[in-house]
Every structure is written in C-alpha cells, then in structure tokens.
Amino acid sequence: MRPRNAAATRQALLEAARDRFTRAGYEGTTLRDVAADAGVNLALIKRYFGSKEGLFKAALAASPRLLTDVPSDRAAFAEALSRQLSADTWPEFGEHPVLMLLRASGDESVTARRREALEGAAQRIVDALGPAPDALLRAELLVALGVGVAVLRSAVGVEPLSEATADDLTGPLRAIVDALMPS
C-alpha cells in the first residue's frame, strides 16, 4: 500500500477539476470523471472539498485570474494584458483558464462566483487606471475584450490571433486601452 499524500491528492483533484470545468462546464463535469482523471477514489472529493460546488470554488480560486495585478500606467497595463492573452501564456492549461468562467452552470451560486470573478477584474481596472466617464462600463468592455480573445485563441483557434505573441498584441491593445480609459 502506497502512503497517502493529502497535498498531492488535493492538487491532482484541483488540476483535474479545472481541466474538466474548463472543457465541459459545471453541468457537464461529474465528480466521478474528476476522480478518475486524478486517479483517486471519489470519496476524496467529498473529504477535501465537500461537494461539487466546493470543488468548483476551489478550482476557480486556484486558477490564474484575468488581470490580477493591474498596473496604473496604461502602457504597462496593455503589456500585462498582452502577456495574459498571448498564445504561449497558459500551456499547462491547454485552454485559457478564463474559459472556466464562461460555461453555463445551471447553479445560481456558481453563476454568482463566475460573475464576481469577472466583475472583480473590471473593478481592478477601474481602481488602477483611475476614474473616467463611465469607468466601470469601459473596464467591463476591456474584460469582455480579454475574454473574447481567450475564446477566439483557445477555444476556436482563429488565426492569426491564436498564435499571437505578447509583442504582437501590445500595440493594438495599447490603442484600445487608451481609447477606453482616457487619462
């Protein structure tokens, strides 16, 4: 019998859950599939996370968030956004981790978590880049742009966007940031 490593098991479950939730959405993901992907007993999900919703919340919290640290300088913000959206940013995920926020859940609590994550990204933009007329709306448009790029790049594979590097994206994104969030 091999010794148990709770931290490694928990991490394996989080990675399997993140992958399943990103590809299949909340409704399309079963705990049995996550356990099988992680190579562990289904009962361990209940032990570590309590429920499917608890597993989703933990997987969401453990995933990189869009625009976690928003620089207050517009040029630096455009560069940071470019890095997060470029083709080589999230190779360990296969698809952009923001896609986990887009799949319908059918569960209001999960939908609220998804909404909070996206609204939080917009609020971080407003907080960093300062007030502008309709600042929150403008910031939400930037979040929508980021989500759209992630979808087109990761889930659809639209060229040349799917192969664009951070350097390729910085100039166009800088123009959009300047237009949406004037100083």
From TrEMBL:
<protein>
    <submittedName>
        <fullName>TetR family transcriptional regulator</fullName>
    </submittedName>
</protein>
<dbReference type="InterPro" id="IPR036271">
    <property type="entry name" value="Tet_transcr_reg_TetR-rel_C_sf"/>
</dbReference>
<dbReference type="Pfam" id="PF00440">
    <property type="entry name" value="TetR_N"/>
</dbReference>
<dbReference type="Pfam" id="PF17920">
    <property type="entry name" value="TetR_C_16"/>
</dbReference>
<feature type="DNA-binding region" description="H-T-H motif">
    <location>
        <begin position="30"/>
        <end position="49"/>
    </location>
</feature>
<dbReference type="InterPro" id="IPR050109">
    <property type="entry name" value="HTH-type_TetR-like_transc_reg"/>
</dbReference>
<dbReference type="InterPro" id="IPR009057">
    <property type="entry name" value="Homeodomain-like_sf"/>
</dbReference>
<dbReference type="InterPro" id="IPR001647">
    <property type="entry name" value="HTH_TetR"/>
</dbReference>
<dbReference type="InterPro" id="IPR041678">
    <property type="entry name" value="TetR_C_16"/>
</dbReference>
<feature type="domain" description="HTH tetR-type">
    <location>
        <begin position="7"/>
        <end position="67"/>
    </location>
</feature>
<keyword id="KW-0238">DNA-binding</keyword>
